[in-house]
Design a protein that fits this description.
Radius of gyration: 22 Å
Number of helices: 18
Low-confidence stretches: 1-52
CATH topology of the largest domain: D-Maltodextrin-Binding Protein, domain 2
Mean pLDDT: 88
Structural class: alpha/beta
Order of helices and strands: HEHEHEHEHHEEEEHEHHHEHHEEHHHHHH
Number of domains: 2
CATH architecture of the largest domain: 3-Layer(aba) Sandwich
Shape: globular
Strand content: 5-15%
Distance between the termini: 25 Å
């Protein structure tokens, strides 16, 4: 595994219940630099909202999570609170919907050692950074075994750093190629075939756009990572210390450029995020969509006629005859290092990631579960998750984003230098290599 600290007791921050109270912590240069940039953010109410119960003996747990649109997270919090028999009560603190905004809010509060940070929802790419900064508590071996029992190994890996579990998978995720069965009788297997189908449909005056993330943000980094991996490469070396952008990265850039200068490109591509892609597809202007499975329950609700025509297949590859490698996504749950309710928070995480809550989140919200056996459970598949086998296949072949405490800086450099899609070129890769090297050396860190 990549280098990191071992999470021993002597390296964990203290939880004395006051801002600024902490023990000795060893941090990587990247994490320490990021912390230094935000340590001055003295947040109002630091350490004042998570220290007690609700007056009836129940620990008041704050769960920081984005506003999941189906309401499944809120239902899980209510059900788990009731099932705890008075041990704890979970209140949701809503984070921004975009990953960058979520991280910024969490980092600023953690830098101020806010003791209200009980249960934290972390993007799968944040584990190295938050672990190295000692912002989250590691789980011991017994807890790790119990909390991840039956989960997909690839999902558990996203919450692990230096061979220790810091975050329990809440859901996993992988993109599929969604297409209109009434427009595309045989789904494409490669990027070039997809663009050729879109060109044919455009010539016929029929819906033809390929909806995919193109705005300058994390989703664009995910697109680039999936293309590089599907071309047989990766962005960083296995240990996360060196830039590894070779010929596969050139193929990835050429694929972006080919889409940008073809009829398949939505005119607003350079401003689109996942939800923009969903909305555009639901209006009927597109033939394809590269996106996560949340789009399926949404289409069933908003455009049932269109939903009946939605087909799905694996992400298009750049190498004919070889499997594609879409990027694994998802969210994990961690215990904040300054929480006064570590045991209760760990117990609540076990409930929130439990089987029934995962099923409801998948059916209602489209978020793929982390429990392996659900992907072969006919009741689950036939009950509202028909694409489960396709998601499972994608996860088995999924790529990961660069695993480094400096990930945020690496991601921002990718999204910045390769934007907008219409001006991307192989020549920009030299600039990207240099910028990523600087990020790994803790230059140009971002809060």
């Amino acid at each position: 595994m990549e280098p990191g600290h071992d999470g021993g007791p002597e390296e964990r921050p203290g939880r004395g219940g006051r801002c600024g109270a902490g023990g000795r912590v060893r941090r990587s240069p990247a994490a320490a630099g990021a912390l230094a940039l935000v340590a001055g953010a003295a947040l109002a109410g630091c350490g004042s909202s998570g220290g007690g119960g609700d007056g009836r003996g129940a620990a008041a747990l704050n769960w920081y999570v984005y506003n999941e649109s189906s309401g499944s997270f809120a239902k899980a919090a209510a059900d788990c609170s009731a099932a705890s028999n008075g041990r704890y009560r979970i209140s949701i603190n809503v984070l921004p919907n975009d990953s960058d905004g979520q991280r910024q809010q969490l980092v600023r509060r953690l830098a101020a050692q806010d003791s209200s940070m009980d249960i934290l929802t972390l993007d799968v790419t944040w584990t190295p950074e938050f672990a190295e900064a000692a912002w989250v508590e590691p789980f011991d071996q017994a807890e790790s075994t119990r909390l991840t029992d039956g989960m997909l190994p690839v999902a558990v890996q996203t919450g692990t750093w230096d061979n220790q579990l810091y975050a329990v998978p809440l859901n996993t995720n992988a993109q599929l190629l969604w297409y209109r069965k009434d427009l595309v009788p045989r789904p494409p297997k490669t990027w070039d075939e997809m663009l050729a189908d879109a060109k044919r449909l455009a010539a016929q005056g029929r819906p033809h756009y390929v909806e995919v993330q193109g705005a300058q943000y994390e989703g664009y980094t995910v697109l680039f990572n999936s293309l590089v991996a599907s071309a047989g490469g990766q962005i960083l070396s296995d240990d996360g210390t060196r830039v590894a952008l070779g010929p596969p990265a050139e193929k990835a850039v050429e694929a972006i450029r080919a889409l940008a200068h073809s009829p398949a490109a939505d005119p607003s591509w350079s401003n689109q995020r996942e939800d923009d892609n969903r909305l555009a597809f639901e209006t009927g202007s597109a033939a394809f969509q590269l996106n996560y499975p949340f789009i399926y329950p949404s289409a069933k609700q908003n455009n049932p006629k269109l939903a009946a025509q939605i087909g799905w297949t694996q992400w298009p590859t750049l190498v004919p005859g070889q499997h594609s490698h879409s990027t694994i996504g998802g969210y994990n749950l961690a215990v904040g290092a300054y929480s006064h309710h570590r045991a209760e928070a760990a117990a609540a995480i076990g409930c929130l990631t439990g089987r029934q809550n995962q099923i409801r989140t998948a059916i209602d919200g489209g978020l793929p579960p982390t429990l392996k056996d659900l992907y072969t459970d006919r009741k689950f598949i036939d009950g509202g998750y028909p694409f489960a086998p396709a998601i499972h296949e994608a996860l088995q072949n999924a790529s990961v984003r660069p695993r480094t405490p400096a990930y945020q800086s690496v991601s921002l450099q990718i999204a910045h230098i390769l934007s907008p899609p219409t001006s991307v070129s192989v020549g920009r890769l030299a600039d990207l290599r240099g910028a990523i090297s600087d990020a790994l050396d803790s230059k140009g860190l971002v809060p």
